[in-house]
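Internal ticket - ligand job 146, DQA:
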Amino acid sequence: MKIQVINGPNLNMLGIREPKIYGSASYADLEHYIAESAAELGAEICCFQSNHEGELVARIQQCHGKADAIIINAAAYTHTSVAILDALKAVALPAVEVHLSDVSAREMFRRHSYPAMACQTVIAGYGFASYRMAIKYLLENSSTQN
Ligand code: DQA
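stdout (structure tokens):
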């Protein structure tokens, strides 16, 4: 199974940004963790990060015919982006939304997610392990389409 991981704005600042919420490990550490998890679980993984909404939309579109599933942490765009929701709906691939932090236990505005409306499930609050759980979920539910 080919899984595209898509990470949104400010995740490249992991290790520097708000360490009490996001921890002290870097974005490179996260990519390394995802690659190791994928190898262990038996999935092919490609990671992409951008601070730009249009680039995230373009990358989702590029998944059409190339990827089998998507894991998305749209970061702040989670709470604002109809464009990302529409892109996920357009490619209609099995998708899982992930977050490092427990967005349900933070500010009210973080409780709303646009991408979640095109995702099979949301996994949030487990730090890096949210991504591993998403890979597992997709491998176990691969026959289910959006
Ligand atoms: C985040 C949660 C978002 O609310 C926030 O804007 C982020 C990171 C997370 O992984 O916990 O940038 O997506």
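Auto-summary: Residues 2-141 form a domain with the Rossmann fold fold (CATH 3.40.50.9100). Residues 10, 73, 75-76, 78, 99-101, 103, 110 surround DQA (CB under 6 Å).
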